[in-house]
From TrEMBL:
InterPro entries: Rossmann-like_a/b/a_fold, Universal_stress_UspA, UspA. This is Universal stress protein. It comes from Pandoraea apista. CDD domains: USP-like. Residues 1-144 form the UspA domain. Belongs to the universal stress protein A family. It comes from the Bacteria. Pfam families: Usp (PF00582).
Length: 151
């Protein structure tokens, strides 16, 4: 039985689709929804630069996403919350943080988009989604991008 849903978001169109799906699932099941955003800057983006402006930009994006997600939860009448986690040092393991949050929150299922805003795209899955599934100890629902395998 699905009563606790965790959805990972990153501001990408595919993550928006994952949020839409998770919100509809929570509404249909009268479940709680835990929305997770991980502040992370891949090392390649800041190799020779001061990472602070990038980190601050990600924090601001996280706060904007928190506000929007909270409003949508309230508007749909779904109980839930929005968590922002930071990965420091840079280049940490986002999939591990998603699974750790799911474990700590005791989620019944994880919902994640197959392609987000990170790195080079894979043939079938985004690297975060793929590694999240590989590390998962609970069911994971994968939401494809607009073009199926990717965007």
């Amino acid at each position: 039985m699905i009563q606790r849903i965790l959805v990972a978001i990153d501001g990408s169109p595919t993550a928006d689709k994952a949020f839409d799906y998770a919100l509809a699932l929570a509404t249909a099941r009268k479940a709680r929804l835990h929305v997770l955003f991980v502040v992370d800057i891949p090392v390649a983006y800041v190799a020779d630069a001061d990472p602070f402006p990038f980190i601050e930009a990600m924090r601001m994006q996280g706060e904007s996403l928190r506000k929007t997600a909270s409003e949508r939860l309230k508007g749909a009448g779904v109980e839930g919350d929005v968590e922002i986690r930071e990965l420091l040092p840079l280049g940490g393991d986002v999939p591990h943080q998603i699974n750790l949050a799911a474990e700590e929150w005791q989620a019944d299922v994880i919902v994640i988009g197959t392609h987000g805003r990170r790195g080079v795209r894979r043939l079938a899955l985004g690297s975060v989604a793929e590694n999240c599934v590989r590390q998962a100890t609970r069911p994971v629902i994968l939401i494809p991008g607009e073009n199926g395998a990717g965007e």
